[in-house]
Write a structure and sequence with these properties.
This is NADP-dependent 3-hydroxy acid dehydrogenase YdfG. The protein is of the alpha/beta class. The chain contains seven helices and eight strands. It has an eight-stranded mixed β-sheet with strand order 3-2-1-4-5-6-7-8, sandwiched between helices. Bound molecules: nicotinamide-adenine-dinucleotide.
């Protein structure tokens, strides 16, 4: 079965857009006549990457809430619409000591979790104005399976998956499908520090292109709130959450969550 493609003429914002996944995704989207706007930290290198790909570049630090809103306004002003937001910017901790470096922990969570929350809230009204679309969060396998060497990363990615799952019903009501992708290790700059170890152990890593294919699929075909695992030799598969036991009433029946605790879209 072939994956449906985004409509030609659509506009997508990619945070962390000049990194490994961002570049691979931008290349694929351009080939589909989509305009990918690359949002990233301000540097000559990042501007040059975007120019080389033939993509517009916007400066964005995803931890700046107001800047997320300003960038979305800029995209709408310059390109007329926003159909998809790829909330993909991310970092991991630089070291994996037993002592937890709280400053680094907070920095990872600020970028990898709050960057996603700010980005989603900024993009939401614009995508709704465009008649609906998608928000795709780049989480990680580390959000589903604990990463002992980088607890902040697991917290942030696990939180990003929980955010996508819990936001899905209200966004669906606005015609927006939010989903998360959860790649295993992939060959981008983020694994520069540990690439030698993968090579030495003959451990397979994903290519950025494999991940970018999943990112395109998530735009057009994701189930709302789904988390897609991507692993070498396995491909892209939806993660099946096991669920939790429901509360039981005194007479042993499954208790129903009070209406007031559900979003309006679920009442
Ligand atoms: N490569 C992997 O093994 C792997 C696996 C699972 C998930 N991920 C996730 O994929 C995403 C993309 O990473 P990548 O593999 O392309 O690595 P990368 O390092 O090539 O790209 C990350 C990008 O995010 C940008 N960025 C960092 N902080 C930012 C900030 N505050 N504001 C805006 N942009 C910022 C960087 O400048 C860079 O361009 C990240 O969220 C990462 O955690 C990567």
């Amino acid at each position: 079965m072939t994956t449906p493609t985004p409509a030609a003429g659509s506009v997508a914002l990619i945070t962390g857009g000049t990194g490994g996944f961002g570049r691979a995704l931008a290349t694929k989207l351009r080939a589909l006549d989509v305009t990918p706007v690359l949002a990233d930290l301000d540097s000559e290198r990042n501007r040059q990457v975007a120019a080389d790909l033939g993509c517009p570049f916007v400066v964005l630090d995803v931890t700046d809430r107001a800047a997320n809103e300003a960038v979305v306004a800029q995209v709408e002003a310059e390109h007329g619409r926003l159909d998809a937001a790829y909330l993909n910017a991310g970092i991991s901790a630089a070291k994996s000591d037993d002592a937890l470096d709280m400053d680094e922990f907070m920095r990872v969570v600020q970028i990898d979790l709050f960057g996603v929350v700010y980005g989603a809230e900024a993009a939401r009204p614009a995508i709704k104005r465009a008649g609906g679309g998608a928000i795709v969060v780049t989480a990680s396998l580390a959000g589903l399976s604990p990463m002992a060497g980088d607890p902040g990363y697991s917290v942030a990615k696990g939180g990003a998956i929980a955010f996508a799952r819990s936001m899905a019903p209200r966004l669906q009501r606005e015609g927006i499908t939010i989903s998360a992708i959860c790649p295993g290790f992939a060959d981008t700059a983020i694994i520069d520090r540990i690439r030698d170890q993968f090579t030495a152990a003959n451990f397979p890593v994903l290519t950025a292109e494999e991940v970018a294919d999943a990112m395109v699929m998530a735009w057009t075909s994701a189930e709302p709130g789904a988390a897609y695992v991507i692993q070498p030799g396995v491909g892209t598969v939806p993660y099946r959450f096991k669920g939790v036991p429901s509360a039981k009433t005194a007479s042993g029946e499954t208790a129903v969550v009070p209406e007031a605790l559900r979003p309006p879209s679920m009442r």
